[in-house]
Design goal:
The structure is a homodimer. With about 240 residues, chain A is of the alpha/beta class. Chain A has helices spanning about 20-30, 50-60, 75-80, 90-100, 105-115, 125, 175-180, and strands spanning about 5, 35-40, 65-70, 85, 120, 155, 190, 195-200, 205-210, 215, 225.
């Protein structure tokens, strides 16, 4: 049975890395003393080593060790042996390209479907949807496909931002972009605001955190869903 | 000899469609009484007909007729016969996919290299760079490649936005995204603010409008370039 935490972001304004979600992480990874970290999304282009160090410090206070996948000679073995997996944020195009190039997409999908607990933030959460097509990231590299894990039967837009009514900028709002997506695609999209996450366990997909999420479905008005909504009706 | 106007956006705050750039368009298209409009980027998902009507109204006051490429039975012939070409904004992924699917990329490139004047806004400007990899758009469809016209020897980031120092949002700034691009790619990127455009003529690439543009080069600090800078040093 799948066990996932799919978080919009690793940080919220004014708090340290993962700080807002630490109590949930401690509970979620209870009994797991080491997690495999996958740093491929490289936020700001930082190295795998530097990014893994960030993750290590984030998990220190809940006594969970972090090992970076780049520390293993065979990344596929690392995934198969992992007691828990954390994929951090950064650039989704780069992350997906790496996962395809190293043939890790199906390997990770397989272990998570079989019960290895998975925690994702931002880019690491985008890829939990059917495709990465609702990322906000810049296409800095060309991946062989936009198809991703499909741990949920919809797509995710992380760092969801409401339109700013005072803005004079003429670029598209997030809502406009997602509506453009729905002129070509049927997959529902969940706009997950910073500080929100999904907890997937025993077949339920529960919205956690204190904020609503915004659900976009083709040819329907967008819906505001309050915390504790079970999104398994979308599957 | 190439003749292009590459505009950051079709509109600026408080003005109508193309209004801010009409005097320049009248001058640029002097002697041309009909322009081929390519509506494939479909902003907000509008139809080719509706989008062409928007362009038609935009050009009405300077007495230039607009014909939509979808009104022709053979789009390649339409490009080859065009006296001028305008590609409007919308979603760059969709625009590029359509241009590849209809085998129009090389056809348009060829006529523009041979002197057909080209006007682009937003997505229609992104594709004037070597690749579309600095678009802000959502990847709502998978194009066969990110390579684009290469009318200039760098890439463009349209609707360039400066970081907002008061923001509490944790998503990446535009500058962070472009810097991530430069951890993997060498191509220079020009951040073109709304209301700015490039005028390419007689081998010169002149920044027009009242604002600076921001130039990002790999391993160099970003540069603010004032109006009337000639960017042909990048070629």
């Amino acid at each position: 049975m799948k066990k996932l935490l799919i978080a919009s972001s690793s940080s919220v304004h004014g708090k340290g890395y993962l700080e807002y979600i630490l109590p949930e992480l401690a509970e979620f990874f209870k009994g797991v003393n080491e997690i495999l970290f996958i740093p491929y999304a490289r936020p700001g282009g930082i190295t795998h080593e530097a990014y893994t160090e960030v993750a290590r410090k984030g998990f220190e206070s809940i006594d969970i060790r972090i090992k970076g996948i780049h520390e293993y000679s065979n990344p596929m073995d690392a995934v198969n042996q992992a007691k828990g997996i954390f994929i951090g944020g950064g650039n989704t195009f780069l992350l997906v390209k790496q996962l395809y190039d190293l043939k890790l997409l199906s390997t990770i999908k397989n272990v998570v479907e079989n019960g290895t607990p998975y925690f994702g933030t931002s880019a690491g959460s985008n890829i939990c949807g059917l495709t990465m097509q609702n990322t906000n990231d810049m296409p800095i590299i060309y991946p062989p496909s936009f198809d991703t894990f499909g741990f949920v039967n919809f797509n995710l837009n992380c760092h969801y931002l409401d339109p700013d009514p005072t803005s004079t900028h003429m670029g598209e709002t997030r809502e406009t972009r997602i509506n453009e997506y729905h002129t070509l695609n049927k997959t529902a999209v969940l706009g997950l605001r910073e500080g929100s996450w999904l907890h997937i366990k025993k077949g339920k997909i529960i919205l956690k955190g204190s904020l609503n999420a915004r659900l976009f479905q083709q040819n329907k008005p967008a819906l505001e869903l309050p915390p504790n909504t079970d999104l398994s009706f979308l599957t």
